[in-house]
Fold this protein.
Amino acid sequence: MSSIQYTQSATLLERAKKVLAGGVSSEFRKYNHPHAIFYTHGKGSRVYDADGNEYLDFTLSQGPLILGHSHPRVLEAVQEYSAQAQLFAGQHIKEIELAETLNRLIPSAELLRFCLDGSEAVQTAFRVARAKTGRQKFLRFEGHYHGWMDNVCWGISAPSAEALGNREEPSVYPWTEGLPEHSKDEFIILPWNDPELLKQTLAVRHHEIAAVITEPVMCNSGCIQPEAGFLQTLRQLCDDYGIALIFDEVITGFRLSLGGAQQYFGITPDLAVFAKAFASGYPISAIVGRKEWMDVIANARVIHAGTMNTSNATVAAALATIQVLEEEQPYERMFAHGRRLMDGLQRAAVQTGHHVLLQGPGPMFHIAFTDMKKATDYRDVLSFDKAKLGRFIAGMHDRGIRVIGRGLWYISAAHTEEDIDHAVHTAAAVMGSM
Ligand code: PMP
């Protein structure tokens, strides 16, 4: 075993717990190995903690750091524009530039509004869909994460696949206490990637449904791609019934292409939500959509607001991030690196006698310990060996490689082929020791 120490982080966590509930500022941060870790700085593909440990980082801070940590162009832009002012809570020219950029790049972004994070933007999309259709419910899918607000805090945890019950009328479980009971009545939930079930459900219940929301790639439970034709069927059914198709591109946005998953798959939703990767870790998100839908905001039938929206730092960070992505066009490289890593992890597993399932497009992908050859929905994901994955992630962490605990890997433009090969080599050692 390696001799890595976490003593400074352990001490800081005890101090933090006296003033921060649970010692953290977001629940997910607790689930690090061996406990919440305190970080000091990051550069490119590396991040450093309070014990002086260096990690090759495949979490990219849950996705946002598509250019790696501390990209100089982003820092420069933020510094320069923040020196002029920090927050006007009024309009400024750079936010038009940013909106024009998204409008040019994202197929569905005829009109848009900026918010602070993904959770807020999702709720704005629901409001738009309800206002335009006059219907109340949204349809969503098991295992898809759409933020931590009440009405989406169901269907993302379950004791087992069996506990979800029949596919036509799944049982839903709350992710947290404190949810209003009625928040369960806001949505209809179905397993993903099942076009026939969707057709049947919409045929009967379309008059209740304002929107269908989906992650175009299910990245929050495994990393599962849509089956051939599934997104097309969704698009067609939403058109047939006058339902808003919402793509939650919080992860896929700027990660699969500059135009998001909608460009990558060639399916244009009515509304879409972008966050994470478009501003290198600064808090900005966008709800974008076709004019006929977004007009309800334009003409103030739907209110969207926020004191902190489009602060100088966030807009400058987003503009700089997108500029670098457009100049560098790192996508081919990120896909190739992701696939090289997936292949390497698969080889390492075979060599060490483990059965793993690697799924995902490349710039993000998931590793599971399972005998399954393919997972297509959340019910499959629930059968993965979580305990074994936990041991693998911990082993990687103890050897200086940081991966998200649920097995999701993110590739940035800053990762090199050497980084990828180092991760594969380390994974082989960890699997060999398991
Ligand atoms: N949608 C998806 C697909 C996400 O992955 C997330 C965050 N992981 C959210 C919404 C919520 O975004 P935020 O954490 O910025 O509120």
